[in-house]
Amino acid sequence: MRRKIPPISALLCFEAAARSGSFAQGARAMNLSQSAFSRQIQGLEAQTGQTLFKRERQRVQLTGAGEMLLQELAPQLEALEATFYRLRTRDNPYGALNIGTYPTLGSRWLMPHLARLAQDQPRLTVNTITYLDNAQVDASLVDLAIVQGDPPWPGFRADLLMPETLVAVAAPGLLEAPLQDAARLLDHPALQHTTRPLSWQIWFEDLGEALPARPAGPLFSQFEMLIDAVKYGHGVAILPELLVRRELAEGTLILAHPHRCTPASAYYLLTPQAKAGTSRIERVRAWLLEQAPSG
Questions:
Q1: Which of 57, 186, 278, 282 is most buried by a 10 A CB count?
Q2: Are residues 170 and 206 in the same domain?
Q3: Calpha distance 199→240 (Å, rounded)
Q4: For residue 121, what are the β-bridge partners?
Q5: Residue 134: burial class (beta carbons within 10 Å; 0-12, 13-18, 19+)
């Protein structure tokens, strides 16, 4: 079935005139004579049954219908341009790609690895896109994405990247040494991450104990702020060990209890199904999967 869509040339002429406010400037941008350019606009107006421009001497101004068309058309043209760019560069092992990650994981784990990737593959440009939860992962924006959780992720190929170990941490000013009685951790405010409300329960169950009480403490939407809150003595938290290695090594945080929990959920490296097979994406995917076991 033939789609009832105007020629792309007419749509591009419309956008050029709308952006410049001038048929003359639009014609120059499209490398057309002004009469040929005007015929494109007239044909578009005839096909839509709408007047798209008000002519005022040497300038043109969008009508209400024209404004509506521009608002809806512009992002679609940008997406189409991006699609053809990806198609042209699909088999190019170099160029740019976007990796999605959580902010704190990006700064504390991904950045050191990307520094090594830049040394190994200097002709690649890697951009980072951040999100706060898995629902924000957009397959149209990312070429690869790191997420924590459990598969499946519809529309993505998922590779196990690395397990996650959860530890209880506190500031040394709050606790002099790790507690042996896990229940006493809740004598202090139990700090929590908004997207990980079950961390305390998971940690206690892995220890073989029931969570003695519902954690009562502030919530934080970013791990970086949660880590800082623990460092400043606001309470105790269950955190991914991966994110607090530096603080534990430097002594600005200590283990609040010796137990380490490795839950079933883990970190996965996602590739949008539509982008699987792209040369440079596959190269970086393979490189990251090789690096991950070393942390």
A1: 278
A2: yes
A3: 10
A4: none
A5: middle
Enumerate the β-bridge partners of residue 99.
128, 144
Q: What is the DSSP pairing of strand 156-163 with strand 236-240?
A: unpaired
Is 3 part of a structural domain of the chain? no
What is the CATH number for 126?
3.40.190.10
pTM given for the model: 0.71
87-140 pLDDT per residue, tens: 776 667 777 899 999 999 999 999 999 999 999 888 888 999 999 999 999 988
Count of domains for the chain: 3
- Interatomic CA distance for residues 17 and 26, integer angstroms: 5
Question: What separation in angstroms does the CA of 249 have from each of 85, 242, 252?
Answer: 45, 12, 8
pLDDT-above-70 percentage for the chain: 96
End-to-end alpha carbon distance in the chain? 53
| pLDDT number for residue 295 | 57
Q: Which domain holds residue 188?
A: 166-261
Q: How far apart are CA 232 and CA 239, in angstroms?
A: 15
In the beta sheet, which residues pair with residue 157? 271
Least confident of 76-90, 118-132, 161-175: 76-90
Q: Give the three-class secondary structure for 258.
A: strand
Q: From CA 73, how far away is CA 19, in angstroms rounded?
A: 12
The CA distance from 52 to 67, in Å, is: 8
Distances (CA, A) of 150 to 23, 110, 221, 273: 54, 20, 20, 18
Summarize the confidence of residues 168-186 as an average pLDDT.
95
Q: Which of 166, 193, 160 is nearest to 262 (CA)?
A: 166
The amino acid at residue 193 is H
Cβ count within 10 A of residue 264: 8
Rg of the chain over all Cα atoms, to the nearest angstrom: 27
Q: Does residue 294 carry a pLDDT above 60?
A: no
